[in-house]
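Hypothesis: this fold can be encoded by more than one sequence.
Test: take the structure tokens below, design a sequence, compare later.
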């Protein structure tokens, strides 16, 4: 054979061998997945012996091996085989040291040793703190180290050692309660801290006070707050006075704090204190009084903002104009500038509006008012006869703020008000991330329904926590977690991103289509999502019931007219009744779905009155003129949700 032939044969052999190895590996991995899934079922059924044996059969070469070892350790603990549990945790720590599961293993191993009074607990807790310093388990480890030293102090007869142990225990307890004042161990930490007879500085007293406050023990909290510096504790003292019903003292402390110590506090806490103060006095008078008492304190822009809201017409615009100019970096500047901008649009001062709109776009690109300003800028450019700029603004809304109500409006403008397909193709809510080298392990655990371990390993990922809540049937919790997490992302992912399905899941869609009548089924779905977050047992503070939050009187009127009966907590009956009602009010409003959504929230009579008496040129202007902020925002939320559903699905 020639040298070339030999080389080809060798290459072919290598390829065949690689394929055989790969096929065997995939087969072994699939087998491991089957075993793990079966073991999880046994674990959930409390058959820990069977689960332990099944987890032990996971191949040592499988990616699931660390999870299997962890689960074996948990099984062993359930069977009171604590030495065996420690052995399995130790294997994880040694073989997978740089993983989240190793951190949990260190901590769980330390807990077992602590409970069994075994040697090594102290070293394990110290290792958790050293290796994973920013985690919650590191803070919890401080509590247990405090307990170890505290117990040692109780057992020794050596005064010098006792003093040393008490000092160490006190330091750990102090650190722990400062970081986790509301934890279930906090009271025990405080009680043991007191028994160490350690001297408390003002910072320590504040931490102890917060523990008592979180437990509802406001009297003891006050005693410790009196031993702190007012510049550090005035917010805590004010909250505590309110809980004790000592309102005049609370107002006095807040006034002093805002006047003298506001620069040392986070701005959110300052706003909270202003709100707390205004909850104790007539709001408008309180705003003016505070403005006179705490001139230009940190957070004064909030008082100016509140003061502006009490004014009308041009006076309000002058006030807002001063607000954004004096506090351009404050929280309320973007909204103030947007209102000044829109006043110019309404007055037909388009050149001035264009200047202000560009200023807003440049300085506040991701504020809540940004989509509104950019959408209105398109209308300004239209008035200034700049069609290319008008189109650019509409496209800008779609690209920068794709999940907003104004993206939906921009889409309609660009497409000459042509509608969207009223039906959607339902897709399942799946794990929120696609597979990658970084998250394959977590996704595999999720696919195998080991939700508890996924939850432990991904405590800081709100999308994963949302997905777990969804899998457990906690749909409202799931939606809120995902929604809040998505709100924190400035540049939104494309609608194909799996996380969107958690923000906008689909439930009861077949029932909606079954009873849709002449209604848009996706619009009804959107109303349901905003009304109840798919909680069929929901009841509002005013008595609205079920998925579509129908008022009993409204439901009775529809039921009597169409011969229906059944509970509004029954999903199908609720959907059918709501669809009939929506179809009725839409028909009265000449088939206008957007007006029907307004009437669904604000009442038919109110919508008819606004249509008759408000002075407007188009629907956008009509919506902004509606005097009920709740109803105005309701329509924007529902149509935003409708828009997102049509894009995601």
């Amino acid at each position: 054979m020639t040298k070339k032939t030999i080389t080809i044969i060798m290459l072919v052999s290598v390829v065949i061998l690689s394929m055989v190895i790969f096929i065997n590996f995939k087969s072994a991995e699939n087998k491991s997945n089957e075993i793990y899934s079966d073991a999880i079922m046994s674990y959930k059924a409390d058959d820990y012996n069977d689960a332990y044996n099944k987890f032990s059969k996971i191949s040592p070469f499988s990616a699931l091996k660390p999870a299997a070892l962890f689960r074996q350790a948990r099984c062993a603990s359930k069977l009171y085989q604590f030495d065996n549990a420690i052995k399995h945790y130790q294997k994880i720590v040694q073989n997978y040291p740089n993983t989240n599961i190793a951190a949990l293993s260190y901590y769980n191993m330390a807990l077992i040793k602590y409970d069994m009074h075994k040697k090594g607990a102290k070293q394990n807790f110290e290792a958790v703190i050293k290796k994973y310093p920013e985690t919650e388990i590191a803070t919890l480890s401080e509590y247990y180290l405090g307990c170890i030293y505290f117990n040692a102090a109780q057992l020794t007869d050596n005064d010098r050692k006792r003093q040393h142990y008490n000092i160490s225990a006190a330091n750990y307890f102090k650190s722990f309660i400062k970081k986790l004042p509301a934890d279930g161990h906090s009271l025990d930490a405080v009680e043991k801290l007191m028994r160490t007879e350690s001297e408390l500085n003002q910072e320590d007293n504040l931490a102890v006070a917060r523990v008592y406050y979180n437990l509802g023990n406001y009297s003891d909290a006050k005693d410790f707050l009196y031993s702190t510096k007012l510049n550090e504790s005035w917010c805590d003292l004010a909250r505590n006075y309110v809980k004790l019903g000592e309102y005049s003292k609370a107002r006095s402390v807040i006034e002093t704090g805002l006047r003298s110590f506001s620069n040392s506090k986070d701005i959110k806490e300052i706003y909270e204190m202003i709100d707390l103060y205004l909850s104790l006095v007539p709001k408008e008078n309180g705003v003016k009084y505070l403005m006179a008492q705490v001139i230009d304190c940190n957070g004064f822009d909030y008082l100016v903002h509140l003061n502006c809201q009490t004014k009308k017409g041009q006076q309000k615009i002058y006030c807002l104009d001063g607000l954004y100019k004096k506090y351009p970096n404050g929280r309320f500047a973007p909204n103030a500038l947007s209102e000044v901008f829109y006043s110019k649009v309404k007055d037909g001062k388009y050149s001035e509006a264009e200047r202000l709109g560009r200023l807003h776009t440049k300085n506040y690109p991701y504020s809540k008012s940004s989509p509104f300003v950019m959408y209105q800028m398109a209308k300004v450019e239209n008035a200034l006869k700049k069609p290319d700029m008008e189109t650019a603004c509409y496209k800008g809304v779609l690209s920068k703020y794709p999940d907003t109500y104004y993206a939906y409006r921009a889409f309609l403008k660009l497409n000459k008000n042509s509608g969207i397909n009223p039906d959607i193709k339902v897709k399942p809510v799946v794990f929120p991330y696609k597979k990658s080298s970084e998250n394959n392990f977590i996704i595999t655990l999720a696919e195998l329904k080991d939700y508890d371990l996924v939850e432990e390993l991904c405590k800081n990922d709100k999308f994963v926590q949302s997905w777990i809540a969804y899998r457990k049937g906690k749909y409202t919790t799931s939606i809120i977690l995902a929604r809040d997490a998505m709100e924190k992302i400035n540049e939104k992912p494309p609608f194909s991103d799996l996380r969107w399905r958690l923000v906008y899941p689909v439930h009861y869609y077949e029932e909606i289509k079954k009873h849709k009548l002449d209604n848009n089924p996706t619009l009804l779905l959107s109303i349901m999502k905003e009304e109840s977050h798919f909680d069929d047992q929901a009841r509002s503070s005013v008595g609205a019931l079920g998925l579509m939050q129908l008022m009993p009187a409204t439901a009775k009127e529809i039921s009597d007219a169409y011969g229906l009966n059944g509970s509004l907590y029954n999903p199908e009956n609720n959907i059918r009744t709501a669809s009939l009602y929506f179809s009725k009010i839409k028909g009265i409003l000449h088939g206008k779905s957007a007006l029907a959504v307004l009437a669904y929230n604000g009442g038919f009579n109110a919508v008819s009155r606004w249509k008759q008496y408000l002075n407007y040129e188009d629907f956008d202007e009509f919506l902004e003129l509606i005097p009920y902020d709740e109803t105005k925002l309701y329509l924007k939320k529902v149509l935003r949700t409708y828009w997102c559903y049509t894009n995601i699905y």
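Residues 626 and 632 are 6 Å apart (CA to CA). Residues 19-25 have pLDDT under 50 and may be disordered.
Hypothesis status: open.
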